[in-house]
Amino acid sequence: MVEFALPRRDAANPDYCTGVDEWHDAIALAWAQAIASVPGARRVALLVWGDPALYDSTLRIAARLQPPPGVRVIPGITAVQALCAAHAIPLNEIGAPFTVTTGRRLREDGFPPGTDTCIVMLDGETSFRSLDPAGLEIWWGAYLGMEAELTECGPLAEAGPRILAARAAAREQHGWIMDIYLLRRRAR
Ligand SMILES: C[S@@+](CC[C@H](N)C(=O)[O-])C[C@H]1O[C@@H](n2cnc3c(N)ncnc32)[C@H](O)[C@@H]1O
């Protein structure tokens, strides 16, 4: 086990993608230094939250190492799957698409067009507050798969305030929180 300080992303960078790109370079450098600190290290294992294919840059960062390493992925359960399982709901409506997006995109672009089901991740700002709740239902989960797991669901107008209260209390209690939610437009 090798510990290293995870570089921080420059959140002040006005260009979000450039900020993330530079951040990934810095993380790759930290990995390279950590690996070099173990004489004779030949294999490295990295744990990720859920699955590295979904809103995770472990594989992008690994590709920046020189020489690029061979990588084997052991798939994990995504937070999307954990959320649907916790509520015992199907992810998509019959034959219909769904969108997975971030809190920032939900705030900036609103409910994604072309779908009635939207999953929101990476949302530290409870961005569902930016939507008109009429006709929307929400299924929310925090600390999914963990002892502290919390869930709430219902019409957004009613469940939204409950989620805000539960989220604030849990964050205060644990000092951190990771949560995800699914929004569905009710059939008209
Ligand atoms: C950097 S992304 C990682 C996603 C992960 N690769 C996956 O497969 O779910 C972090 C976001 O995933 C969601 N997340 C990951 N694990 C979670 C959990 N156990 N409970 C609730 N949300 C979780 C949250 O939306 C969090 O902001």
Task: Give an overview in words.
This protein is α+β, with helices and mostly antiparallel strands. It has 2 domains: 76 residues, no CATH class; 107 residues, Tetrapyrrole methylase, C-terminal domain (Methyltransferase, Cobalt-precorrin-4 Transmethylase, Domain 2), CATH 3.30.950.10. Helix content is 32%, strand content 15%. The chain is built from 5 helices and 5 strands, in the order αααβαβββαβ. A 5-stranded mixed sheet has the order 1-2-5-3-4, sandwiched between helices. The radius of gyration is 19 Å and the shape is elongated. The termini are far apart. The model has no long low-confidence stretch (mean pLDDT 95). The site of S-adenosylmethionine (SAM) has 20 residues, from helix 3, strand 3 and strand 5. This is Precorrin 6A synthase. Keywords: Cobalamin biosynthesis, Methyltransferase, S-adenosyl-L-methionine, Transferase. One of its GO terms (biological process) is cobalamin biosynthetic process.
Shape assignment: elongated
Supply the number of helical segments: 5
User: What average pLDDT do the residues reach?
Assistant: 95
Measured distance between first and last alpha carbons: 54 Å
Radius of gyration: 19 Å
CATH superfamily of the largest domain: Tetrapyrrole methylase, C-terminal domain
Q: Residue ranges: pLDDT <50 for 5 or more in a row?
A: none
Helical residues, percent:
25-40%
SSE topology string = HHHEHEEEHE
**What percent of residues are in strands?**
15-25%
Largest beta-sheet characterization: 5 strands, mixed
Question: Structural class, from secondary structure content?
Answer: alpha+beta
Q: Which fold does the CATH topology of the largest domain refer to?
A: Methyltransferase, Cobalt-precorrin-4 Transmethylase, Domain 2
Number of strands: 5
- Give the oligomeric state: single chain
- What ligands are attached or bound here? S-adenosylmethionine
> Mind telling me which CATH architecture of the largest domain this is?
2-Layer Sandwich
Strand order of the largest sheet: 1-2-5-3-4
Domains (count): 2
Q: What's the CATH class of the largest domain, please?
A: Alpha Beta
